[in-house]
Amino acid sequence: MKITKQDGTVVHGHNIEMQGCRIFCTPDGIPLKNRELCGEYPDIFRTTEVFSEMTFTGWNFKNPEYVMPQN
Prior knowledge:
By secondary structure, this protein is of the alpha+beta class. Helices cover about 25% and strands about 40% of the residues. It has a five-stranded mixed sheet.
């Protein structure tokens, strides 16, 4: 999945995870323990909403691309 992080950096990543109010992904070609922060949100409800949008995009489109919202 092509992910544009909140800082504007583009990452081709997989293994998306949510930890508290932060969302991480593992860049392609890098071992699983080297995760990158993709986005951080003010509360768990917004984080869950963004995470749900990401998983929906990843599972339902052939070449998924997702831009992390700023807030």
